[in-house]
């Protein structure tokens, strides 16, 4: 189906209202991005942050007459300093096919691959995680997930217990089990993430070794390895909870951290952990630490 998009330049404080107006005028979807292309890496917990000048884009079916929409927006008091907009036609493509064509098996470290179902497995003798990309949960393409998978690939996980804190798709827990871990526990605030994790574990033949929990009923245990690929803010706020999962002499791997955030994250854990040098990929950081005995 062909589409047309209307992009409006808006003061940051009015961006959500203008987004609501676009939806009220028939937009099928609304997105927000910085007019200066400055990304927000980590808004405060529970807070939706906008930029000083925001581009609000509404997506409409291509046969939509945008003239009445633009007229309605111009009447709004939100544009006291002028109304700037542009329209673009989007090519009619088979987006699902294009998305599938561009997702290939990816290797992490020496042994580990993540392979989508519609591609041939490059190395049948490797450790292959069968995982299709989805809308919300990780598939290994993000640098933070890649860093964690690469670290797991380099470890001897035989008979170990692993906690995947913020499990998402379950990719890290599943990878750990396929690499030899005896038991994995996935914890996430999103029930859909827990469902996705178990479905992916079933597909990879490790469902009997994986347990998943919401934070409200998370278990009491001590793990040999804890992997927390979330964000710097939650890593600091949840430091006590995450630390309690790590056995004495156990290992903690944290990602979702920017280079400038390293000191703050380390400060939340350094009393009980000894840190290795940070690993960096595309401005994102993975921290590895061992809990003191």
**What number of domains?**
2
Would you give the CATH topology of the largest domain? Rossmann fold
The backbone outline, from C-alpha atoms, is globular
SSE series: EHEEHEHEEEHEHEHEEHHEHEEE
**Mind telling me the CATH superfamily name of the largest domain?**
Vaccinia Virus protein VP39
Helix content: 25-40%
Alpha plus pi helix count = 9
What is the alpha-carbon Rg in Å?
A: 22 Å
Class of secondary structure makeup: alpha/beta
Q: If classified by CATH, what would the architecture of the largest domain be?
A: 3-Layer(aba) Sandwich
Main pleated sheet: 8 strands, mixed
Span between N and C termini? Answer: 60 Å
Q: Summarize model confidence as the mean pLDDT.
A: 85
Q: Using DSSP, what is the number of strands?
A: 15
Overview of the molecule:
With 293 residues, this protein is of the alpha/beta class. It folds into two domains: 3-92, 2-Layer Sandwich (Alpha-Beta Plaits); 142-291, 3-Layer(aba) Sandwich (Rossmann fold). The chain has helices at residues 15-24, 66-74, 95-101, 143-153, 171-178, 191-203, 232-237, 239-245, 262-269, and strands spanning 3-11, 29-34, 53-61, 85-90, 106-108, 112-115, 127-130, 161-165, 183-187, 210-213, 223-229, 246-258, 273-275, 279-281, 284-291. Helix 4 packs parallel to helix 5. It starts with a strand and ends with a strand. The relative contact order is 0.10. One of its GO terms (molecular function) is protein-lysine N-methyltransferase activity. Methylates ribosomal protein L11. Its EC number is 2.1.1.-.
